[in-house]
């Protein structure tokens, strides 16, 4: 058994914004490209307690404890433009659930298809930094 000195030590600026140990009910993760960058959306769903937690870029946006209805929707905003996002929770069979993400009322797939038709996006690497350039058609 390792002594206390062998356990990892994190400086304040190196620790994650949330504890992975607490995310035991993580059921879905999406990466969403918006005009201000790519945003990571994570969803926890406690199917015994009904708990629902939504994280956007590691920051908790929605937390609901003890929901009696296990299916439904959670709506929140993403990015600098406060883009509307909704997670749909549907029962598929028994205690199995399906989680789908909508952006501005469209499925994520449909939103991304539409976005690729209406914008051109480049990532420019300049002086060691990445800059995202988005032009609307």
UniProtKB/TrEMBL annotation:
Pfam families: FAIM1. InterPro entries: FAIM1, FAIM1_dom_sf. Gene3D superfamilies: 2.40.128.180. GO terms for biological process: negative regulation of extrinsic apoptotic signaling pathway via death domain receptors. It comes from the Eukaryota. This is Fas apoptotic inhibitory molecule 1 isoform X1. The gene is FAIM.
């Amino acid at each position: 058994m390792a002594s206390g000195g062998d356990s990892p030590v994190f400086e304040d600026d190196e620790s994650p914004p949330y504890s992975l140990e607490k995310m035991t009910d993580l059921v879905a993760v999406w990466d969403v490209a918006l005009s201000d960058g790519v945003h990571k959306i994570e969803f926890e769903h406690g199917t015994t307690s009904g708990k629902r937690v939504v994280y956007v870029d590691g920051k908790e946006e929605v937390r609901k404890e003890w929901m009696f209805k296990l299916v439904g929707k959670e709506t929140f905003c993403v990015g600098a433009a406060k883009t509307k996002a909704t997670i749909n929770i549907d029962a598929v069979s028994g205690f199995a659930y399906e989680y789908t993400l909508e952006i501005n009322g469209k499925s994520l797939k449909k939103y991304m298809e539409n976005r690729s038709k209406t914008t051109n996006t480049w990532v420019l690497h300049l002086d060691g930094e990445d800059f995202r350039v988005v032009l609307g058609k």
